[in-house]
Amino acid sequence: MTLIVRSESLTPARTTVWLEGRLDAATFGDLDSALRDITPMVDNGGTLVIDLSRLEYISSAGLRSLAQLRKQMHDRDGRTLLLNPQPQVKKVFEIVKAVPVAEVFASVAELDQYLDHMQRQITG
Amino acid sequence: MVLRSVASRLALAVLLGSAIVLIVTGGLLLTHTREQTLRQTEREAAAIAGSAANRIQARIDGVAKVDQVLAGLLSTRREQAPAIIHDILQANPEIGDISAAFIPRDHSALREEDAPVARRKPDGGIIMGSRLSDPEPYWSSPWFIRGLNCDNGCWQPPFRSTERNETLVGYSMAIPGKNLPVIGVADATISLGWLQKLLGELTKPEHASAFVLDANGEFLAHDWESYIGTRGSRPLLAAVAANRNPVRITPEEGGRVSEPVWIYFVPIKGTRWIFGLNMPERQVLADLRHTYMVDILLGVLALAGVSLITLVVTRRLMAPLGVLAERAENVSRGDLDFALPVVRRNDEVGRLTRAFDQMRHQLAGHIDTAKRTAREQERMASELEIARQIQLALIPEAHWLADDGRLELHAALRPASAVGGDLYTYFALGARHVCVMVGDVSDKGIPAALFMARTITLARTIATHARSPSDILGSLNRELCKGNDTCMFVTLLCGVIETETGLLALASAGHEQPVLHAGGSAILVDVETGPALGLDREARYPVRVLTLLGGDTVLMYTDGVSEAHAGDQKLYGAHALLDSVSRIEEGATPETFVEHVLSDVDAYVEGAAAYDDIALLALTWHDTSAEGARLDAAVHS
Hints:
The complex is a heterodimer of chains A (124) and B (637). Helices cover 43% and strands 31% of the residues of chain A. With 124 residues, chain A is an alpha/beta fold. In chain A, strand 1 (3-11) and strand 2 (14-23) form a beta hairpin. In chain A, helix 1 packs parallel to helix 2 (60-75). Chain B has two domains: 1-325, PAS domain (Beta-Lactamase), CATH 3.30.450.20; 395-635, PPM-type phosphatase domain (Phosphatase 2c, domain 1, 4-Layer Sandwich). Helix content of chain B is 42%, strand content 22%.
């Protein structure tokens, strides 16, 4: 089983990455190398959305990759938000809390609402 | 075997291929040449027959002209007939005899002068006579009647003269009269002996025989003299009648021949005779057969030559390949140190030789690299083995029984590779407390092992001054967050048990829920988890307190147990684990718990190599004092 990484940059401020398959010790290297190409395209202070709807499994090695990604984005004042994990993956996030549970969203609407809220906080 | 060599096989293939080509083209050539030869022979025969026919025609035309002149003379000079025919016979040596036969004026008074005849004697002299001395009356004999009707002259059928012992043929022409249309017949007879002689004088191909056939189908002359006067065979006459020229006649068809022959014939103008040339097919084709045999022989010689040249040339071309093949066998034996022939050619062999040389050097390089890599790996393996022993030295004994006998622990650690990121540890905190930990570092292998070593070392140091698992996890987390750019983390379940009371305080940093085996059943203990250690400096860890009763066992484990699987198999899961634990009899030792769960997990993956590290720790509290009420409380730090 492999990992497929796709990405789309609609605006410099927001890039979406789709993960499909398994993210574990055998595949996190693929994600890391793919993200090395993707993250520079996100503006400082931008948002990287990781769509997990087709991710079937995540191991601790995979969590570490995501945590490291979040840290890198954070160092650039950016945000890493996780979208729509499958139940078994969501459970791992909830137990290990490698990324704050508040940054995991069940749907795009929920995520957009969160981003709106954040922007209002900054501008307001 | 000779055919092992490519050169011999090529030469043989060329030989076979050319032989097939030779046989096919030879066959076509034979057919073609046969036709050509037959046509050529036909042309030759036609030329011979034509010239022979012309010669015959010239001869008999002469006779006819003489007779025509004679008829003209006699129409006015009947009285001088004997003298005229005598003189004409004298002037024309080819003529045998000449008759001037007039219709008798009075049958009762026949006169010698009515039918004078001049005959040539065998010695050349001329003797005069009369037709009246013929055995039958000349005026009623067929030749005379026929002659009266030949206004323009015509040839009589040949006849055999017994007295002269030769075949004769006469040319007759009606003698026109002054008042009557016809008064008699002028007849010149020639011997056919000249015809026979002419046939013999013809320049004919060897074995060919010539003949002349009259209108009745009888041979007037024939090279085979016994055939003279006999009838031609049925197929010959049929061919002549149908003008099928040339015609092939075989003994089987009824031909009067001993072998198949070709007959070419030409009609002789002015007569109804046919001149024919008979050629035995065997002779016609003899040259052809000879030529063909010579051609085949030359072809075979050419084939042998071509094969030989192919063999020699291929041998020369392939010689370097033979050496290369030997060298390749050297390579297969592992010998890379040898000389290669110097090939300056730029063809395939040259390229192959150079490529082979290059390959040999590269192969030697690869083998060196492989050897170095193997040594490196060996070194790595031995280093890993040492690392593994160091790692194992970091964790306490698998079995521990407290001095007072109340607390018994048993643990197992099974890294998936030489070293791993799972850990367990336990140590006393003062006199009345014992701290137990089971953890799992993100990822596997050496980075995980190093992080595990850091965690386990820090934990012992930090925990010395703490009594709450919440504090222990908090301090440990802050230490592990320092300089952790790679975001390694460890999930850790930490328990502190008061040995006297069995009071167990639990805190979890993102770790699996422990299993409690109490009163014959197994349940998951719901411990609210905080973030895994090493990620969030501000993290807090709530505490859950359990009061263990005598014989209760708490099982702490890593996801190597709960997520065990082989290939695409479903994960082992918490339910299977609970099921496994619940089947353990009450009062079993922690060692039994550990071994039972491990064997169930092993059975589930059916001996497949472990996918993840496994750490498993069973803690049993033996209460020898009175039964106490189970106290269960959650204290949030």
